[in-house]
């Protein structure tokens, strides 16, 4: 009888501890925010998603920049560092939900998007 109670207690303990340990891992996952650069300086980046949300991200020492616009042959137009980013660039910023304030871990520069109502 005691062996059965021990097994039940062990299963109950595992059932209680497992979800708590997985919650910590899930909170460290990256989130993405896509929009147009509204303001940028040496320490901060403000991104506007054109739906009324403006989000501020802080620069980290290890923030990486990836340019996917396809004009890599044009050295003047490539974005390889934080200082190369310009206002009006379209970007996706990878950040962690648990960070307060938000920190930019990776920035992907996207091709420019056509605004609604623009002529082709």
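^ Assign residues to that structure.
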């Amino acid at each position: 009888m005691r062996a059965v109670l021990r097994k039940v207690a062990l299963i109950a303990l595992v059932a209680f501890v497992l979800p708590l340990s997985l919650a910590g891992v899930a909170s460290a996952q990256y989130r993405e925010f896509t929009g147009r650069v509204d303001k940028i300086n040496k320490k901060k980046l403000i991104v506007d998603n054109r739906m009324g949300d403006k989000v501020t991200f802080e620069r980290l020492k290890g923030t990486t920049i990836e340019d996917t616009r396809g004009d890599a042959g044009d050295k003047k137009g490539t974005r390889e560092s934080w200082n190369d980013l310009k206002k009006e660039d379209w970007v996706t910023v990878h950040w962690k939900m648990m960070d307060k304030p938000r920190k930019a871990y990776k920035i992907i520069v996207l091709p420019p998007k056509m605004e609604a109502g623009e002529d082709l």
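The mean pLDDT is 81.
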